[in-house]
Amino acid sequence: MSNGVVANGASADQTHTASQRYLSTRGEDSGFSFEEVVLKGLASDGGLYIPEAIPSAENWESWKDLSFTDLAFNIISLFVSPSEIPSEDLKEIINRSYATFRADEVTPLVNLQGEVHLLELFHGPTFAFKDVALQFLGNLFEYFLVRRNEGKTGRDRYHLTVVGATSGDTGSAAIYGLRGKKDVSVFMLHPKGRVSPVQEQQMTTVLDANVHNLAVTGNFDNCQDIVKALFADPEINSTHKLGAVNSINWARILAQTVYYFHAYFSLLRQQPSTFKLGDKVRFAVPSGNFGDILAGYFALRMGLPVDKLVIATNENDILDRFFKTGRYEKKPTYGSKAEGGLEQDGVKAHEDGVKETLSPAMDILVSSNFERLLWFLAYQFASSAGMDDEWNKKQAGQEVSSWLSDLKNKGGFGPVYKDVLEAARKNFESERVSDQETLDTIKALYKEVGYVLDPHTAVGVEAARRTQKRALAEEGAAKHIISLSTAHPAKFASAVELALKEEPEFNFQENVLPPEFVGLDKKEKRVSDVANDWKAVRDVVRQQVEEEFKALGY
Ligand SMILES: Cc1ncc(COP(=O)(O)O)c(C=O)c1O
Ligand SMILES: N[C@@H](CCOP(=O)(O)O)C(=O)O
Q1: Residue 41: phi, psi to the nearest 5?
Q2: Which residue in 102, 131, 314, 489 could disulfide with 357, CB within 3.0 to 4.6 Å?
Q3: What b-and-e string marks burial along 357-375, b requiring 16 or more CB atoms within 10 Å of the CB?
Q4: pLDDT tens digits along 321-377
Q5: Does a cis peptide bond (omega within 30 degrees of 0) precede residue 197?
């Protein structure tokens, strides 16, 4: 590791290109360095950080034979000035982050059926796509903290207090990325009883002193709201230096951009007769918080030939409703079937509007990263007025602030301007997949090709198959589509078993369960129950960090 090339917490300067400087989607903050946005997570005006410009990957074609880690280095370097992380250090961080994966290719592409391909993102330590970004983010935090803490002792050290919300996968991936790391405490809030048993076990059986699991009486959105309330509280934010591991943290999105390029190049190698360099591909992405698919949008904007990004939602379908109506509203406007509404298949809907589905990691009312896409759409719209770039950015920030304020105060906003919606539809289309369709898809793929899908992946595959059918009808030929496989099926045993229980050959223990999960349920656990109240969570954070400090002799 090189010694402090950049001053602690330095803002972006002339050594940073526009894509290496960051601004807030709500317009108040700009000129940040990568280190600042990674450590801060959320901007102080409540907005999310985005690069001031999206760089074009000018020689992306020449990357086609690179390994995953070399590709990651080329892509990530476009967004991080070498004055902040010297190239050799960045390479070392990347190599270390992906050495923990079980697959040599890190994110292998497999042909599922016909022109439908699966991008397997679950070969990391916790068997979910979050590992791709969180192994990297854990090592980044460590790198910055070692540099900031040189020569410092005890309470003078910069101690990061990570607070995150999880519906199960981010929590375990963040915990595995940060366990045992010096100068970081990690607090993960999950909705009590609403994560799968394996997810719960993965999180709560990690007993490192810096890991704290909080089971919140509420849903995932409540956990996310508590995290945002903590970030908005100037007191705890300054005394405890809060950090984010959710996809509000820009480094999460950045790391995920890599596998869109990698998948494209894998397809090129696997389908040489029907897919050539420069051909467009589609991606179908099971979506909740909109982080994974947003990474695809960045890849597209950087120049990767992407035809469409297909958003696949479960019955918590705020995104699908936006793309159909232009309105972004927390609560569905439709009610139960008995009321003449559209609710399908007897899915349990909580009073708060969140439905409990078979793909629980996507049981989300509000998709936090959608704010980043909204900024780019508003910026594009503002740019058509012919004013200067500073004005365009200011307008975009104001527009996003006003939309987000309506979302908070009135439960929604829209319809957005026609041009904004059309611009969104140019790159995205959306599909809503019910629980019954999820089960049918798991069953169909098992019967047809013997592949066991996890329920989230099945939502994406069903969306991919619908898109394929449309392309076939409209254009007379099926196109290659890459569906993102976001979790290993063993993480969601009950949905998989429900789908496949009547298949005579199917045996969950033998066909699905990885050895790493055996005995997890017998391990010792540590978890604290907390009320759905951000001040109560703040007290727990203060108290548990204090106990950690005392144990360290600080
Ligand atoms: C297994 C799985 N699939 C899909 C998603 C949705 O991804 P995103 O929230 O980035 O849209 C999640 C959670 O984020 C997940 O854990
Ligand atoms: N499905 C997620 C929810 C949090 O999403 P994130 O990508 O913003 O961290 C989870 O698994 O926790």
Answers
A1: 80, -65
A2: 314
A3: bbbbbbbbbbbbbbbbbbb
A4: 999 999 999 875 444 444 444 444 444 455 567 888 999 999 988 899 999 999 999
A5: no
- Rounded CA gap, 64 and 75, in Å? 13
Contact residues for 183 (Cβ-Cβ < 8 A; gap 6+):
145, 149, 157, 158, 159, 160
Number of Cβ within a 10 Å radius of residue 269: 11
Ligand 2 center–CA 191 separation, angstroms: 12
How far, in Å, from the CA of 486 to the mean position of ligand 1? 7
> pTM here?
0.95
Do 156 and 185 meet the contact criterion of CB atoms below 8 Å apart? no
| Long-range contacts of residues 10-13, Cβ cutoff 8 Å, at least 24 apart | 10/35, 10/84, 11/36, 12/81, 13/83
ipTM of the complex: 0.99
Atom of ligand 2 nearest to the CA of 128: 11
DSSP result, 46-113: S-BEEESSPPP-TTGGGGTT--HHHHHHHHHHTTS-TTTS-HHHHHHHHHHHHTT-SSTTSS-EEEEE
Kindly report the three-state secondary structure assignment for every residue of 500-522: HCCCCCCCHHHHCCCHHHCCHHH
Residue 212 backbone class (left: φ over 0; alpha: ψ -120 to 50; beta: rest): beta
The residues with which 403 forms a beta bridge, in sequence order, are none
Mean residue pLDDT across the chain: 93
Between the CA of 153 and the centroid of ligand 1 the distance, in Å, is 39
3-state secondary structure of 189: strand
**pLDDT at position 351:** 52
Distance CA 97, CA 387 (A): 43
Name the active-site residue from 40, 64, 91, 130. Answer: 130
The best mutation among 121, 126, 130 to test binding of ligand 2, ranked by most ligand atoms within 8 Å of the C-beta, falls on: 130
Query: Is 355 among the residues known to form the active site?
Result: no
- CB distance 464 to 483 below 8 Å: yes
Q: Distance from the CA of 368 to the center of ligand 2, in angstroms?
A: 10
The answer to whether 466 and 431 have CB atoms below 8 angstroms apart is yes
User: Residue 458: nearest ligand to its CA?
Assistant: 1
Higher pLDDT, 527 or 9: 527
Pairing of strands 211-216, 116-120: unpaired
Q: How far is CA 453 from CA 45, 57, 256, 311, in A?
A: 40, 33, 21, 18
* Tokens encoding 110: 């497999």
Reference 297, options 121, 122, 423; nearest CA is: 423
Q: Which of 122, 127, 134, 169 is the best mutation target for the ligand 2 pocket, counting ligand atoms within 8 Å of the beta carbon and taking the most? A: 169
120 within 8 A of 110, measured Cβ to Cβ = yes
Dihedral (CA of 46, 359, 119, 467) sign = negative
Q: What is the largest CA-CA distance in the chain?
A: 70
